[in-house]
Design goal:
Blueprint lengths: L1 H15 L13 H22 L10 H5 L3 H33 L5 H14 L5 H11 L4 H8 L14 H25 L3 H9 L4 H29 L3 H7 L6 H10 L6 H33 L1
Helix pairs in contact: 2-13, 4-8, 4-10, 5-8, 6-11, 8-10, 10-13, 12-13
Family: Belongs to the binding-protein-dependent transport system permease family. CysTW subfamily.
Main location: membrane
Protein name: ABC transmembrane type-1 domain-containing protein
């Protein structure tokens, strides 16, 4: 009798359960989480595990210890230098473009052209970008030959597209437009009332920018630098297609360890990628913190 009463009680509970009250909206996130798990979580976990294994699958710390080799340390240093230079120069040039477009009273058609172009150029990278620069500024590129005919030889003056500064200039092609897209809303968020109030109290234009505008824009500028650093730090196809592996940056070294015939050591390549993951994680944490700081002023 007690069992029958219990079954009748459970049946009554199911009868009173209204499926329409269940929140099914979370089902819309299932494809995203499946995609993230398949192409982000599982590969990252495999990479981390492989960093602590030898070729036979045994646990080892040798791969992590090998990251201290001079050639690997130099690769990280060179990658940080390229990323840092392009992040700072990209933020400076792109910030000036965004300022001129929003506050410099440029013609409307300039903005109508610059914003769509920035959206396209910020995603133009890899082999097509490398080929475009080789065809333009290579040793027999269009601009190089044109300047040579005019009596100015770029390569005799020390320029080399396949060097540190050549790679940095190539990266700036997609870094600068990205800055324009990021900082344009930040400049638009500077309220005219702030400048009017400062001027009504006798502040000059320089004082306004030094004491009011720049402190407000600083978190956005710093977060842009951090984002551009991470964007350049992980770039592989552009550098490899442009330099052919002559520049020893970390992404190219990872490719040589995983796919190369001479330096074939996949587990060391995993360790190199693990080191990049650690750096990128720190970059993302710093970027998130700076974004929260800048959001207080951009609301």
């Amino acid at each position: 009798m007690a069992e029958q009463a219990s079954e009748r009680g459970r049946g009554a509970q199911w009868q009173h359960l209204d499926l329409r009250r269940i929140n099914w909206s979370w089902l819309g996130t299932v494809p995203f989480f499946l995609f993230a798990c398949a192409f982000l979580v599982l590969p990252s976990a495999s990479l981390v595990i492989g960093s602590f294994q030898d070729n036979e699958g045994n646990f080892t710390l040798q791969n992590i210890a090998d990251l201290g080799q001079p050639s690997i340390v130099n690769a990280y240093v060179l990658s940080v230098q390229v990323s840092g230079v392009t992040a700072l120069l990209g933020t400076l040039v792109g910030g000036l473009l965004a300022w001129a477009m929003v506050l410099g009273r440029l013609p409307r058609f300039v903005r109508a052209f610059l914003i769509p172009f920035s959206g396209v150029a910020s995603n133009f990278a890899g082999v097509p970008l490398a080929f475009a620069f080789i065809a333009t500024l290579g040793r027999v590129g269009f601009v190089t030959v044109l300047l040579k005919d005019l009596g100015f030889n770029l390569y005799d003056k020390g320029f080399n597209l396949y060097s540190f500064w050549g790679l940095s200039a190539t990266y700036l092609y997609f870094q600068i437009p990205l800055v324009v897209l990021i900082l344009t809303p930040a400049f638009e968020a500077l309220r005219p009332q702030w400048r009017e109030a400062a001027e009504s109290l006798g502040a000059s234009g320089g004082y306004y920018w030094r004491s009011i505008a720049l402190p407000i824009l600083t978190p956005a500028l710093l977060s842009t630098v951090v984002l551009l650093f991470g964007n350049a730090f992980g770039a592989y196809a552009t550098a490899y297609a442009l330099t052919g592996g002559s520049l020893n940056i970390v992404p190219i070294m990872i490719g040589a360890q995983i796919q190369g015939d001479i330096l074939h050591n996949p587990n060391l390549g995993y360790a190199l990628a693990f080191g990049m993951m650690v750096i990128m994680t720190l970059v993302l944490v710093l970027y998130s913190w700076l974004q929260r700081r800048s959001a207080r002023w951009l609301q």
